[in-house]
Amino acid sequence: MLEQLNPEQRSAVVRRGRPLLVLAGAGSGKTKTLTERMASLLAEGVNPAAIAAITFTNKAAREMRQRLAGRVGSELAAAVSVCTFHALGLKLLQIEAAHAGLRSGFSILDSSDSEGLFNDLAPAGMGRDTVAKLRHRVHQAKSAGLRPQAVASDTAEGAEVRRLYGAYQERLTAFNAVDFDDLIVRPLWLLEDHPELAERWRSRYAHLLVDEYQDTNPAQYSLLRILAGDGSGLAVVGDDDQSIYAWRGADPRNLFRLDQDFPSLEVVKLERNYRCAPRILKIANALIANNPHLIEKTLWSGLPDCS
Q1: Distance CA 221, CA 137 (A)
Q2: What is the mean pLDDT of the segment spanning 34-50?
Q3: Where are the beta strands (DSSP E) in 30-157?
Q4: Contact 179, 108 (CB under 8 A)
Q5: Using CA atoms, how far apart are residues 147 and 48, in angstroms rounded to an integer?
Q6: DSSP bridge partners of 300
């Protein structure tokens, strides 16, 4: 299948031993490239259980799993962990529940139950809008990977956020429950506090592949950084011009952090677009030219222009 890839895609598939950033423009075949990298690792004899491919939606994970099954067969593909960040965090918490201060069979609160629990902790008489604002501040703190005691309390609002955040986490623990954000921050805090567990999970997943990397929030990036170790088995695919989850804390600047935290980072640019005619890409390139970029890229197409 390598012969069906362009030179840049092939490079992204076969490079080994150093952290890799695949800067992939829209329509450049990034999912195909990521799938081929997994297939290539398996062809080299890598244990499928040592590969984790992480994306952001269950739909994207299903598509990637199906593509991989089409390349290597259903049985081998099923042994690879193709999942969302939250599914990976849940798996970690289920296996390490005792270390995380949870009991087996802990509950995951949906947004409605989480909101109700938080509202019960708010001072009597506090307006609904104020409570909602404070709840959002707690969500932002979790997205940033902050523990309650790390929330700035130099203002009255900040102090109340810290208090409610701490009380909320204590109530969750008492109920043997976690919320959706906890599926990221609880594993992060656990691995930060227990280096021996971090090493165990680094050994478990020797190869980490991340799709839509530009949509990671700081907590997800921090978890990834711990799991990646020296980065020798890390490959991320992203495009800072395509970030769509800023509303839930996604930070394209994680592309810059990757470069800072992994000095030996290699970069492959997928600039050939297989979807659009050249004049469409000319307009797109002009529109995104003023965006801040760690690495510049210019999309181009081999397709003919429509007359």
Answers
A1: 19
A2: 97
A3: 51-55, 81-84, 107-108
A4: yes
A5: 34
A6: 272
